[in-house]
Structure formats: C-alpha cells, structure tokens
Amino acid sequence: TVERINQLPGDVAGFEMDVYFDTVKNSLLLYHDSTNYSSTKIDAVLDQYRERNMAASIWLDFKNLSAANEKQSLDFISSLKDKYQLNEKLIIESSHPELLQSFCKAGFFTSYYVPFSNPYQQSETEIIHDIDSIATNLERYPVNALSGYYFQYPLLKKYFPSFPLLTWIDNSELSLVGFLFKRTLKHDPHLKVILHP
Fold first, then answer.
1. What is the DSSP string of 57-123?
2. The pLDDT of residue 41 is above 70
3. What's the pTM value of the predicted model, to 2 decimals?
C-alpha cells in the first residue's frame, strides 16, 4: 500500500509486492489473495517510490501470471521499468517457470517459486519426487533464481547450488533453533534475498 511504502526507511535494500495483472485495467493490482482484494494499482506505490528518491530493489510476486496475460503483463512491466527507472531493480517471481521465459528474454531477473513442500514432514520418496520435478522444470525452462520458504532452503541449496536463492522468514524468535537458523541464513552468500515480514 502507499501507507506501507511510506513507512519504509528511505534506504531500505528492497521490498516485495504481491501483484495480480488485470487485463481490463492493463495494470498490476496489489493484494495478497482473493480474500483481500484491492483496487490499488502499482503506480500509486511506485509514484511514492519515485517521490522519495528510493533506490530499493523490488520483488514482484506474480500471483496470476498465465498464458492469457503473459504478453500484456510483460509489456506493462517493461513500461514500468522505463517510467520509474527500475532497470536491474526488478525480480519477477512466478510458480510457472514456463511463463517466465518471455521475461527472461526481455532481460528481467526471474525466480521460480518452487512448489510448497516441507522436507521435515515428507518421506524420502516425496522429497526425491519434488527435487526431480523442480529439476525437470529448470531444464526445460531456465530462470535466474529459485524462491521458497526458509525451511526449503537447505534442500534447494544442496540440489541446485548454481542458483541464487530467495527466501522469506517469519519474525518468531521463540526457539534457539529458529534463531540459529536465521543467523545461518544471514551469513550465507548463496542467498540473494531474505524477506522479512
């Protein structure tokens, strides 16, 4: 929201926005899921970004990228990049690596949001299946990075060491294990981005 970007420090390294492309409005709308619909367009936030002379990188978590809106959304995001001088400042993330290919070709930094899984609650067979599925997608649809929950990070790092990782963590400081794991994350050069709530 406009209010939230104005609460960020001016020198923040980056921030994330959940975006939905509306083909009728030819715009990205900002909201997390269908239960929290908002008509706020991305331009409202980027106007504040520009007014505050921010240089932060922006992670766009693309919630509804589809074959039907891929070209139109690519054109729109390309125009945003030019309008707000966001060259090399955008990360385009989707759970559909096949749809990120046009963004890759246009020079955007892309991240494949891997399917949700919790390796601490899965069998070895399930883990192998997940890793094989991700590997197959990456072979067919190359991207720049992988993104997933912090508890997926050890497996992603182990099996896909050539890919930078983007992850997010919660604010829970209730356990020593959680505290130590977060400290490990902060000191790992393999991680490109750690997103905090």
1. EEEEEESS--TTTHHHHHHHHHHHHHHTT-TT-EEEEES-GGGGHHHHHTT-EEEEEPPP--GGGS-
2. yes
3. 0.90
- Which neighbouring-strand residues pair with 165? 146, 191
For 52-90, b/e burial (b = at least 16 CB within 10 A) is: eebebbbbbbbbbbeeebbeebbebbbebbeebebeebb
56 closest CA partner among 25, 13, 111: 13
pLDDT tens for 2-37 read 999 999 999 999 999 999 999 999 999 998 776 777
Using alpha carbons only, what angle is made at residue 71 by residues 65 and 72, rounded to the nearest 5 degrees? Answer: 85
pLDDT for the residue numbered 37: 77
Q: At what angle do helices 70-83 and 42-51 cross, to 10 degrees?
A: 20
- Measured CA to CA, the distance from residue 65 to residue 6 in angstroms comes to 28
Q: What is the three-class DSSP state of 145?
A: strand
Q: For residue 184, is pLDDT > 90? A: no
Q: Which of 184, 189, 190, 156 is nearest to 169 (CA)?
A: 184
Q: What is the DSSP annotation of 154-188?
A: HHHHHH-TTS-EEEE-------HHHHHHHHHHHT-
What is the model's pLDDT at position 173? Answer: 57
